Amino acid sequence: MSTYKRATLDEEELLDTGSDGIYHTSTMQVGLQRGLGLRCWAEKTHVERKLVVVVCALSVALFICIMTLGLHYKESHPGMCLSEPCVSVASTVLGALDRSVDPCQDFYNFACGGWMRKNPLPEGKSRWGPFSNLWEHNMAIMKNLLENTSMKSLSKAEQKTQWYYQACMNESKIEELGAKPLQDLINQTGGWGLKDPWDKDNFQEVLRIVSASFRASPFFTVFVSTDSKSSNSNIIQVDQSGLGLPSREYYLNKTANEKYLKAYLSFLVELGILLGGSEETSQKMMQEIIDFETALAHITVPQEERRDEMKIYHKIQAKELATLAPAVDWMPFLSAVFTPVALNDSEPVVVYAKEYLQKVSELISNTNKSVLNNYMIMKVVRKMVSILDQRFQDAEQRFLEVMYGTKKSCTPRWKLCVSDTDSALGFALGALFVKATFSEDSKAFVEDMVSEIKWAFEGSLKTVGWMDPKTKKAAKEKADAIYNMVGYPKFIMKPKELDMVFNDFDVVSDLYFQNVMNYYNFSARVTANQLRKAPNRDQWSMTPPTVNAYYNPTKNEMVLPAGILQAPFYNHAWPKAMNFGGIGVVMGHELTHAFDDQGREYDKDGNLRQWWQNSSVEAFKQQTQCMVEQYSNYSINKEPLNGKHTLGENIADNGGLRAAYKAYINWIEKNGEEATLPALGMTNRQLFFVGFAQVCANICSLCFPQLLPGRWSKTGCLFTTHCVLSLHYYLDSQFSPGRQKN
């Protein structure tokens, strides 16, 4: 310190030492005079020499200690990040907090209360959060790309996206055509009893047409996908389907859901009137359709009873379907749906709803043929409502407003058209989106993060006490084998390959209804062609602009589209705490799906088989049962949540948070502490959890127990991961505004 002086050496002593002439001007040089140091050393006593040596040694040691401590302090106290990205994200985080809330009492409101106050539910939305907000951002980018007709060097597929969008935006043409395109289709299908008496025996023919040409799924759904027990091949699959409302519960509890059933009936009646029927005829017909759907709901197996895929998987030959469900003429039906592929009665088929098919066959046989016909036609009408004129869309809006509290009239037309273009030509549109927004540097950075998350997850497997060694070894092998797909599938950046994919999809710039019909036909041909091909790993189930991610068990792959690899989930210039708490948790979530109650049934090659030891299976069920009970204790609108129904997501939430946090701690151990953000008064470990909560914040107008909202899922997740949080939150008495724990 500048004020510090040795007590044994004052100014007078310094003056006295100068009187012997040692500092005579003739001897003052830079350095010692030749021989002076040797003479001084020779004149010193033995004790003095020892003292000098000791002092020098101590001085060197002290210097080394100071340097070491300085470097250590710099690593453990790296200071504050004041770069533009850090200041910006700190402001965002700070604005989302509610510092009046004790984080140890209500962490969700502490982390998200400020955001919820400043973000009222937008008109036209039933729920809102960072996922929704980022999707709006991505749609605005896609809108600009689709409307920029001056772009050069577009591939043919990319041009089709602009034509498809233009046709959707051509509202004058859509209004001019009115209901005629749909009425023509209904007449071509065989008509229905809306305007004139109907009495035909053409059930099998109508079923084939609506299923093959319009991709409707009355009674059941048929599709081509990877064989769960032979992941190197595709196979025809059959499953339950057919309800017009989101779940069977709406039909079974009529008292509790009276307003929804009433709104549904009013909606169908209005559609009938718009298509030429009288109110009386429409009322009678639509009530019969709802009664039939109610009967379907009674035989539909609840989703929570279908989570064990080993139990519901049944591989049979096509000819056995005739015995299982004789009400359907199966071979002509399958041949129509999968034309032009040649099928025979020995074609393998996987049935996921064996008992349901038996019961639906009985229901078909015992139902009036006019009701069956009207029900099938209405399934087609429901698919077409959004592509017809404004009258139909207004009718749908009134129904959706009751169901979800949304006002579609508040949604600009361009948003509907961007979304539909993404659905039909998403990979061609994705090519434009990726070129405009996504960098290869981001791809490499995210891939490194995935490796960190995977490494942390595998490390956690070693500490799972209830899992036997053999199962642990196999689980690690599966985690090692997970294939990571980041950003986009490679083929979309190769114009010739992209054009080849969409070559048979005819698109015009002024006929929206026709484009949608062309898409249904194109989609049917693509599905049929997959039947005789091996599964393609480069074929994604999400388009690149999508704000989401997924894990595919039959491919054992994790997919992270470019659409989600942006703020608030990820920014390469942000502190790692934010990235690991954001996109890192998403990565961990999808990785954990490989080992949830459904994903664990698939081995490292994507095959559905028993690869766990029985003891570990039983231990797993015991471990997850407490999670089922925990989440079932939450309720919305006084109705309890279904912890069994949401078990897979809850496991993934908890496992994802643990893996991401462990990965972040591992990163710190390898790279040292990173600078903190200004103004927050948080450690980076605390910032990790705050960042996690803030990307999961959401508000909703009508919250349904069938879907677990962010507040409940994340609160439950934080509660379950108490072993992690107790270290830095719940046992951190210093965590409060203006304080931080070092």
Give the key terms.
742 residues, alpha+beta, Neutral endopeptidase, domain 2, 3 domains, 4-stranded mixed beta sheet, 3-stranded mixed beta sheet, 31 helices, 6% strand, globular, disordered C terminus
CATH topology of the largest domain: Collagenase (Catalytic Domain)
Strand content: 5-15%
Instruction: Give the C-level CATH assignment of the largest domain.
Output: Alpha Beta
Radius of gyration: 34 Å
Cα(first) to Cα(last) distance is 26 Å
Mean pLDDT: 86
Our count of domains comes out at 3
Strand count, sense and closure of the main sheet? 4 strands, mixed
Binned, the helix content reads: 55-70%
What is the number of helices?
31
In the CATH hierarchy, what is the superfamily of the largest domain?
Answer: Collagenase (Catalytic Domain)
The CATH architecture of the largest domain comes to 3-Layer(aba) Sandwich
Main β-sheet, spatial strand arrangement: 2-3-5-4
Number of strands: 11
What kind of oligomer do you see? single chain
* Helix and strand composition category: alpha+beta
Shape: globular
**Poorly predicted runs of 5 or more residues:** 1-42, 66-71, 703-742
Cofactor: Zn(2+)
Subcellular location: Cell membrane
Catalytic activity: Hydrolysis of the 21-Trp-|-Val-22 bond in big endothelin to form endothelin 1
Membrane topology: Single-pass type II membrane protein
